[in-house]
Amino acid sequence: MSDTTASQSRFERFFVTTPDRFDPDNKYTEAALERHKREGLELAVRARWIAMALTGVLLVFLNPNWDVMWYHFILLLLCGNGWLIRRAGRVGQSRTELLLIFADLLIMTLGMVVPNPFSDDVRPLAMQYRFDNFQYFFIILAAGTLAYSWRTVIAMGSWTALMWTVGWIVAWWVATPIPGLSEAVAAALQGYPAVAELLDPNSFMVPMRVQEVIVFMMVAVTLGVSMRRLNRLLISNAGLERERANLSRYFSPNVVEELSQNDEPLKQVRKENIAVLFIDIIGFTKFSAGRDPYEVIEVLRGFHARMEAEVFHHHGTLDKYLGDGLMATFGTPVPTPLDAVNALSCARSMVDIIDRWNLERRRAGEQEIQVGIGVHYGPVVLGDIGANRLEFAVIGDAVNVAAKLEAMTREMGARVVVSDELREQALQQAGSAADLMAGFVRHDRQVVRGVDQPMTIWTL
After folding, report:
1. Is the pTM of this model over 0.90?
2. Cα–Cα dist 309/316, whole Å
3. Where's the Guanylate cyclase domain (predicted)?
């Protein structure tokens, strides 16, 4: 890095209106900041309108005269400018927004420093500073914390302190003291010079003016530091949201939840009894022959989207896509008391979804889709495989048997084939599997390729 670049970087660090840096490729960060800014501006404008309305009522109570309309005019200007700021506000540095914020503070300053043109009350200009009007700047500063970055909040504090200081210095320079007032107060309070100085109508009370801006700057810096911490937390949370979204591209919601809440939730290899489901489109090779590849891809997308939704809806884990099919597990990464029930319910729901989809396809003059589903319950080995690019693997006889049962749907002329082990487990978990097994037909001692002993299976 060159000296010029380093100096520029150090300078930008102290440029109070520079927006916080964030990863431009992180759409979640940008979206979070945009949402935060929009919501903050809405809250700030509403808070301003409420505060201005209450202030208007308070001013009538403090000054029940027609000349109070001057200050009501100032309040209306501030409300209108707040609306413009909301329209111009965006994430990043906006010159228009900064100009409107500057105009906001300038309107406030002039409204408090310039004598009321509608008042016929003759008083020294220094008396303008006896009403403690400076405290109203805290309303603008507090509302700024709802929408702006920490740098902008500190900038608002700096601009306010500068404008107010310049205002009272100019007023002190051009003010013409009313002759005799200071002398009369001093004579009345002879022997109490400090009290006479405090009550002198011609005195601008410089120490009080300095105290106002110093305290205001201290509050502005404190609020700015708090805003910086809040923005860092917001950006950090946006990063976590991005990481969680990236995980959800590869894992089902229950796996993402487990990954996000634990440091190494899937690392330990273990043996569990789970339900495994395979689903496949029957005759997809023939279906695809001669069709436009884009049409085939759209069919696969529609199929996968519908089946994936049913897996997740029944608390399953999408293990992998298998071309024109998929494999799902129920009981991973953590077993539940209803894994077999969920798997059986998912299989039936998949059949219903395919039927509804086929109804839509018939109406559109498109060929129907036929599927085969196999479900089994049994022991598997779970754990991460790989070194840097990890994959959560499910391996075991239950996986192989479920795949074989799915293949048997062709020879059995069935849409769903489930093992008796799954049925028995569902019966234990649900108390009664009558509804879930409605329509299933039992087949005893069926030979399943790759399985040593004949199996009892149920077909739908």
Report:
1. no
2. 10
3. 275-406
